[in-house]
C-alpha cells in the first residue's frame, strides 16, 4: 500500500467513471514508481482501464537534442514494458496542459494521477489542468524519499535545518516499493507507434549539444549504473568524491533526473550495502541535499533569479554591483569556453562533450561566471542557460539550487568581504590547484 502522505489532491473534484490516467512526467519508469502504482490501485479497485500518458513539449527550458534523445529513448523502453502489462502508453505532442485536457474530454477519463514536481512550468501544467478538468487530480511524490510537502511546509535555511526533519520520519518512508502488475481491464484506446528516432527527427531541436552515446538511457541501464557504483566506487567515496580526476562520484544524476531510476530504490540499495562513512556521505547527497533542492524550488518560485537570494546576499551583491571586473565575458564567450582561465574552459568543455561536469567544478564554474559577468542577474542567466542546454541533468531543482548557492548565497552563510562577490563565498584557481592535479584535468578536457 502507498503511504497516504505521498498523496496531494490538486483539486476537490471526485473520481468519476472512466479510464484512470497516469500522467507520467518526472518519473519516467515502470518499476519503483509510486505514481503508476497508485493509479493502478485506483483502477483495480474500480475495475477500470489504466492508461499512461506523456505530454511532449517541443521546447522545454532550453533542452537540446542530447536531453530529448536520452529521454525519448528511455520512454520507448517504458512503452514496451507497459505493453507487456496490458497498459497502453500514449505520447501526445503540444502544449501539455491543453493536450491533457483535450485527452480527458475525448476519452471521458475518470481521474488523473500525476507526478510531484516543484518547477514553475510543471506547477503551471499540473495545477492548471487540475483547475479545469472537472475530475480528480492526485499528485504523488515518488521522487523524494520523504515527500517534499511532508518534510517541510516552508523554505528551509539549509541542510542543517532540513536534515533533522528528514531523519525523524525517514524510516517510515524508506520502504520497498510494490510492483505494477499486468492490468486485467483492457483500454479501448490504442497506443500509437513509438519510434524515438523518428520523433527526434521531427522535433525542432538545437543540435549544438549532440546525443551522449557513452551513457545508455532507460531503466535497465539505470539499474546497471547503480550496481556498478555500489560494487566499484562506493568504497572510498567520501575521500574521493571531490577529485575531478578520479572516477569517484556516483554518476547517477542523468538517470535520477529523467526518473529512470528511483531515488528511493537507490537509497535502499546503498543503505543495505553496509554502514560506513562512504554510505553516509552518499545518502547525505542523495536524500538531504537533493530533497533540500526540491524544498527550495517548491517554496521559492523565483529559484532561477536574484530574487531567490537571502537578504544578506542580495544586499552585499548590490553594494558591489559597480565593482570593476578584471575580466568580463559575454554569454557567447562563456559558451565557447573562450575565457582566460584554462580550468574554467576545461570544465565547460567537459560539460559540452559529456553532458555532465564534476560536482566540485560546477561550483567553481558558476562562481567564476559571477566574477566575470557585468551583473549578478546576467551571471545567473548565463549559468542557467549553459547548464540547461548542455547538462543531461539540467532543468532540475539540483541545478537551480546549485547555481543559487554559488551565485546568490542560498543555503550558505556570509563570508569575508571581497570585490564583486561581497560576502558570497569565493572560490579560486589556486585553491583548486591545491586540491587536485589541475594541469592534468585541463589536459584531459582542453
Quick synopsis:
The protein has 446 residues and is of the alpha/beta class. It is built from 20 helices and 6 strands.
What does this structure look like?
With 446 residues, the chain is of the alpha/beta class. The chain folds into three domains: 1-142, Rossmann fold (3-Layer(aba) Sandwich); 143-179 and 219-300, Alpha Horseshoe (Serine Threonine Protein Phosphatase 5, Tetratricopeptide repeat); 306-445, DNA Cyclobutane Dipyrimidine Photolyase, subunit A, domain 3, CATH 1.10.579.10. It contains 20 helices and six strands. Helix 12 crosses helix 18 (397-408), helix 16 (359-371) crosses helix 18 and helix 17 runs antiparallel to helix 18 (397-408). The chain is globular, with a radius of gyration of 22 Å. The chain starts with 6 loop residues before the first strand and ends with a helix.
The major β-sheet equals: 6 strands, mixed
Mean pLDDT: 95
Number of strands: 6
Write out the strand line-up for the largest beta sheet, numbering strands in chain order: 1-6-5-2-3-4
Range of helix content: 40-55%
Task: Provide the structure class.
Answer: alpha/beta
What share of the residues does DSSP label as strand, in percent? 5-15%
Residue windows where pLDDT falls under 50 for at least 5 positions = none
List the secondary-structure elements in sequence, H or E: EEHEHEHEHEHHHHHHHHHHHHHHHH
CATH fold title of the largest domain: Rossmann fold
**Rough outline:** globular
CATH class of the largest domain: Alpha Beta
What's the domain count?
3
The rounded distance between the terminal residues' Cα atoms is: 52 Å
* CATH homologous superfamily title of the largest domain: HUPs
- By CATH, the architecture of the largest domain is named 3-Layer(aba) Sandwich
Count of separate DSSP helical elements? 20
Amino acid at each position: 500500500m502507498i503511504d497516504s502522505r505521498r498523496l496531494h489532491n490538486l483539486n476537490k473534484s471526485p473520481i468519476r467513471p472512466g479510464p484512470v490516467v497516469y500522467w507520467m512526467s518526472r518519473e519516467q519508469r515502470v518499476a519503483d514508481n509510486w505514481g503508476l502504482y497508485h493509479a493502478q490501485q485506483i483502477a483495480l479497485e474500480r475495475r477500470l482501464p489504466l492508461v499512461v500518458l506523456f505530454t511532449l513539449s517541443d521546447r522545454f527550458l532550453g533542452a537540446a537534442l542530447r536531453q530529448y534523445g536520452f529521454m525519448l529513448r528511455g520512454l520507448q523502453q517504458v512503452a514496451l514494458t507497459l505493453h507487456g502489462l496490458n497498459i497502453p502508453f500514449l505520447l501526445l505532442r503540444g502544449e501539455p496542459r491543453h493536450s491533457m485536457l483535450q485527452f480527458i474530454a475525448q476519452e471521458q477519463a475518470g481521474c488523473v494521477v500525476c507526478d510531484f514536481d516543484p518547477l514553475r512550468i510543471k506547477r503551471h501544467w499540473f495545477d492548471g489542468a487540475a483547475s479545469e478538468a472537472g475530475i480528480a487530480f492526485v499528485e504523488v511524490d515518488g521522487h523524494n524519499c520523504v515527500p517534499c510537502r511532508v518534510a517541510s511546509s516552508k523554505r528551509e535555511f539549509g541542510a542543517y535545518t532540513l536534515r533533522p526533519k528528514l531523519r525523524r520520519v525517514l524510516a517510515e518512508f524508506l520502504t520497498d516499493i510494490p510492483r505494477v502488475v499486468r492490468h486485467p481491464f483492457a483500454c479501448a484506446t490504442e497506443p500509437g507507434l513509438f519510434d524515438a528516432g523518428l520523433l527526434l527527427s521531427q522535433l525542432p531541436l538545437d543540435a549544438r549539444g549532440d546525443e551522449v552515446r557513452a551513457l545508455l538511457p532507460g531503466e535497465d541501464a539505470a539499474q546497471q549504473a547503480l550496481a556498478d557504483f555500489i560494487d566499484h566506487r562506493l568504497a572510498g567515496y567520501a575521500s574521493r568524491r571531490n577529485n575531478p580526476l578520479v572516477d569517484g562520484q556516483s554518476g547517477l544524476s542523468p538517470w535520477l533526473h529523467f526518473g529512470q531510476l528511483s531515488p528511493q530504490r537507490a537509497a535502499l540499495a546503498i543503505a543495505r550495502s553496509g554502514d560506513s562513512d562512504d554510505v553516509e556521505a552518499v545518502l547525505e547527497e542523495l536524500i538531504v541535499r537533493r530533497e533540500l533542492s526540491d524544498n527550495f524550488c517548491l517554496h521559492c518560485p523565483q529559484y532561477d533569479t536574484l530574487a531567490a537570494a537571502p537578504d544578506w546576499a542580495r544586499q552585499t551583491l548590490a553594494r558591489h554591483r559597480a565593482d570593476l571586473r578584471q575580466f568580463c565575458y559575454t554569454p557567447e564567450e562563456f559558451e565557447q569556453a573562450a575565457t582566460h582561465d584554462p580550468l574554467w574552459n576545461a570544465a565547460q568543455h567537459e560539460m559540452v562533450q559529456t553532458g555532465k561536469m564534476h560536482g566540485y567544478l560546477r561550483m567553481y564554474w558558476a562562481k567564476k561566471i559571477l566574477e566575470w559577468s557585468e551583473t549578478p542577474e546576467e551571471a545567473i542567466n548565463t549559468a542557467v542557460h549553459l547548464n540547461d542546454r548542455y547538462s543531461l541533468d539540467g532543468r532540475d531543482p539540483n541545478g537551480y539550487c546549485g547555481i543559487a548557492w554559488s551565485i546568490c548565497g542560498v543555503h550558505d552563510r556570509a563570508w569575508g568581504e571581497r570585490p564583486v562577490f561581497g560576502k558570497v563565498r569565493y572560490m579560486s584557481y589556486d585553491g583548486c590547484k591545491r586540491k587536485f592535479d589541475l594541469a592534468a584535468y585541463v589536459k584531459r578536457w582542453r
